[in-house]
Amino acid sequence: MSSMSLVGTLPPQLGNLSFLVSLDISYNYFHGNLPRELANLRRLQYMNFGYNGFSGKIPEEIGNLKNAKWLILKANQLDGSIPFTIFNISTLQQLILQQNSLSSSLPMNLCQHPKSLKALTLNFNKLSGDIPKNLSCCSELEELWLNNNNFAGKIPREIGSLNMLQLLSLGSNNLEGVIPETIFNISALKYILMENNSLSGILPPNMCSQLQKLERLHLYQNKLSGSIPRSIGECSSLKHLIMWGTQLNGPLPREFGNLTMLIDLELTENSLSGTIPDTIFNISTLVYISMSNNSLSGVLPPNMCSRLQKLVDVYLYNNKLYGNIPRSIGECSSLKELLMESNQLNGPVPREIGNLTMLEKLDLSENPLSGTLPKSLGYGLPNLQYLNLCQNHLGGVIPAQISNASNLFHLELCQNEFVGLIPNSLGNLAQLQVLRIHSNNLTSDPQFSLITSLANCRYIQELSLSINPLNIVLTNAFGNLSTTLQIFYADNCNIWGRIPNEIGNLSNLYDFRLSTNNIIGFLPTTIQALQSLQTFRVAQNRLKGSFPDVVCGLGNLFWIDLGKNKFSGPISDCLGNISSLREIYLYENEFTIFPPILWSLQNLFSLDLHSNNLRGSLPHEIGNAKTAILIDLSHNKLSGEIPSTIGGLTALMNFSVAHNAIQGSIPDTFGKLLDTFFRSF
């Protein structure tokens, strides 16, 4: 009756089938409670109710099934404790209760009666308490699944006497203390899974002396210490070694090279040091190498990929590796992800990378790589989706062939030494979402035809061009960019002319930066269409006119920077209607009046109005700016006294009214402000 799409509850009359030996109703849609009358099935040996919707408690009467060998109730919604009567069934061989909401602790004499128990599967429940020492009495146990519960305390040494145990899964609990050495003496073990606990101590030196059958070892996310034992090479059947985030230190043993069946080697987020043994790169079965976020050093061997044709992912980022990237990298013909950022690798990007036709993600950023980009990065990598070469010393022109990598959606070449024209062929990258080429020495033609070509990128979300001598005008074509654009950075690019009215077409723009250019004229009124805009920074240009009221309609604005332009007149009080504003920079203009309502902005963090023509006195409302850490009103024409309410600005770290006509005594409340300031250091 398995997998027949049956629906409903179990009738109590089911218990009348007294001659029933096997009952399998798994993979159906039964629900409700389990009837107590099931206990009447005295001849029943096999019961499988898995993958249904049964709820409530497991009836205690189920312990009357004296001939039961298999009890399978997995993947239901059962709760409460496991009735101790189940463990009185001496014939029981398989107890499979995983994926329920069972709670409470296990009986300490759990194995007193079911001596023939071969599989105890209780994972993915809410069980708690200690793991019973009495488990050692289940001498025929082959599989013990206790993972993903709330078990606490130490792993009992007595588990080491389970000589037939093949699988031990204790992961994702609250276990602590050292891993008993006795466990490493169980020669039948194929799987040791103890991840995501608080286990501590060192791994025993002879850890693998008896574990020639071990295939999978999971110890990740624990609090182990010490080095990886050299005996690891004796786990000759090991396929998956996953020990990331375990606080291991010391060198990698050369004996890793003896693991000729190894598929996964995951050692990231430890404190491992020394060189990577070249023996590791001789393991032809390797598919996954992850050793990132350690302190590994040295050079990669020249023949690194000569035997690694099955290798799919290499993660070596955030280490101290140096020297050239081996040209043999092109022999890792199955490679999909190569992440070696944040090292000290130097020399050129080898053209042999272009042989990696399966490559999808390449990150070599934050290294001192030099030379030019090989053209093979484009035409040789048809599956490349992510390329990050930022923060190197790469130079020359960006090869137009890079656009042949037609699946690229993320391209970063920022903070290098690239020169010449930005290739318009980038617009052929139809999947492009992120383009970061800032901080180079790149130029563009005066018509800025790059923008016209990028209009073909209908998924573009971020375009970062800052700190390049583009020497261009923002044309009307700017408004033809996809409405998916969210971030546009073009600070310090020698852009001149006006901000085109078509900016209003970019309805999803939330971060717009055009500071330190030669922008003239007025802000276009079409800016009011940018209702998603959170950051608007156009400082250090030649914009003019009265305060641009158009920004007051931007209800989500978080940061506004109009500093060092030629705006004049009063600052509009409508700015106070933008409750989300936290950063206001209007410095070095010719503003004359600051509206008191702005002091009541609930989230105000920084206010910089220095070097304007502000007149009048400081209002008492300044005391409302409770969240402000910076207020700079220096180099204005303010007069009068400092109001006493300033003492309430306890978050303030930088306050300046220098070079004004402020007079009178410093208010007593200012002392309270100073006390708060010094206590913060």
CATH class designation of the domain at 546-681: Alpha Beta
Helix content: under 10%
So what's the overall shape? globular
SS-based structural class?
mainly beta
> What is the arithmetic mean of pLDDT?
95
| Unreliable sequence segments | 676-681
Query: Which fold does the CATH topology of the domain at 546-681 refer to?
Result: Leucine-rich repeat, LRR (right-handed beta-alpha superhelix)
CATH superfamily of the domain at 546-681: Ribonuclease Inhibitor
The helix count comes to 3
- Describe the largest sheet: 27 strands, parallel
Percent of sequence in beta strands: 25-35%
Kindly, what is the distance between the CA atoms of the first and last residues, rounded to a whole number of angstroms?
Answer: 72 Å
Query: Cα-atom Rg, whole angstroms?
Result: 34 Å
Explained architecture:
With about 675 residues, the protein is mainly beta. Among the domains are: about 10-55, no CATH class; about 545-680, Leucine-rich repeat, LRR (right-handed beta-alpha superhelix) (Alpha-Beta Horseshoe), CATH 3.80.10.10. Helices cover about 5% and strands about 25% of the residues. The protein has a 27-stranded parallel β-sheet, with no helix packed on it. The protein is globular, with a radius of gyration of 34 Å. The chain starts with 6 loop residues before the first strand and ends with a helix. Mean pLDDT is about 95; it is low at about 675-680.
